[in-house]
Structure formats: structure tokens, C-alpha cells
């Protein structure tokens, strides 16, 4: 019984540490220049456009939930790039993506916001200053 409790506490501890690492990583990305990447995403970054980059993976259950929120954002903001992190690993790696869904707001070539996990429409619109 004692070992069982220790295992459960260890798992909970690892989960809490992982959540802290993910939050710290998102905070540390804000204000940094967006990496140089190819394709239409890279061109929009170079132009200094305001961009919402959404990183997902096909088998991610949380991504499927996040996908239901994106149409609400698209009604007010059209410059959304969907990046399959499983297929476009070089781009995901350049942005430091370690989990999906991750949504990044880039403006004037600078990372303005970096959201890891499911992010609601109000929070995304606020970040894009569209409230």
C-alpha cells in the first residue's frame, strides 16, 4: 500500500513539473524574434504581418477540440496558418514546439503570445487585439 501511494504521488509530481515546464517555455518565448522558416508562413513573418500559427498533430485529441474554436477566430481574423507538427517537424522544431496544440501569435516578426494547450476564442481574439 505504501509503495502504491508513493507511485501515485510521483506521477502527480511529474505531471505538475511538466505543466510548469510548459508554462515557463511559453512565457520565455514571448518577445523573441520569430524563427526564419520557409513557405507562406515564413513570407508572412518577413513581411511583418500579424499571424496566428496553429501547430497540431493528427492524432491529438486536444487538437480536435482546438479545431472547433478556430472558426470563431477566423470570422474576425483570416491570417491563420495551420501547421501539422508531425509532418513539418523542421518548422515545429524552429518554433520550439514540444506539445500540441500550440498556438502562436506573431506580429512584426516578434512572438507576441505563445499558448500551449487548448486556448479559447476570447483569449485568442484578445491576443490578436480583436476582442
Explain what the structure shows.
By secondary structure, the protein is α+β, with helices and mostly antiparallel strands. It has a single domain (2-127), classed as Glutaredoxin (3-Layer(aba) Sandwich). The protein contains five helices and four strands. It has helices spanning 2-29, 39-47, 61-74, 89-94, 121-127, and strands at residues 51-56, 80-84, 102-107, 110-116. Strand 3 (102-107) and strand 4 form a beta hairpin. The longest helix has 28 residues, at 2-29. It is elongated and about 60 Å long.
Please provide a brief summary of the model.
With 131 residues, this protein is α+β, with helices and mostly antiparallel strands. It has five helices and four strands; from the N terminus they run ααβαβαββα.
| Biggest β-sheet description | 4 strands, mixed
CATH architecture descriptor: 3-Layer(aba) Sandwich
List the uncertain runs. Answer: none
Q: How large is the share of residues in beta strands? A: 15-25%
> What is the straight-line distance between the termini?
52 Å
Report the total helices: 5
Using the coordinates above, name the CATH class.
Answer: Alpha Beta
Helix content: 40-55%
> What is the fold named in CATH at topology level?
Glutaredoxin
- What gross morphology would you assign? elongated
User: What is the alpha-carbon Rg in Å?
Assistant: 16 Å
CATH superfamily: Glutaredoxin
Amino acid at each position: 500500500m505504501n509503495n502504491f501511494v508513493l507511485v501515485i504521488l510521483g506521477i502527480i509530481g511529474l505531471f505538475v513539473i511538466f505543466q510548469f515546464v510548459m508554462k515557463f517555455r511559453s512565457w520565455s518565448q514571448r518577445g523573441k524574434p520569430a524563427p526564419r522558416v520557409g513557405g507562406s508562413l515564413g513570407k508572412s513573418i518577413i513581411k511583418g504581418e500579424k499571424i496566428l500559427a496553429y501547430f497540431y498533430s493528427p492524432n491529438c485529441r486536444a487538437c480536435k477540440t482546438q479545431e472547433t474554436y478556430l472558426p470563431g477566430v477566423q470570422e474576425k481574423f483570416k491570417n491563420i496558418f495551420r501547421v501539422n507538427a508531425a509532418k513539418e517537424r523542421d518548422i515545429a522544431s524552429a518554433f520550439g514546439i514540444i506539445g500540441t496544440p500550440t498556438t502562436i501569435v506573431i506580429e512584426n516578426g516578434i512572438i507576441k503570445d505563445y499558448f500551449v494547450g487548448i486556448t479559447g476564442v476570447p483569449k485568442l481574439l484578445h491576443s490578436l487585439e480583436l476582442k
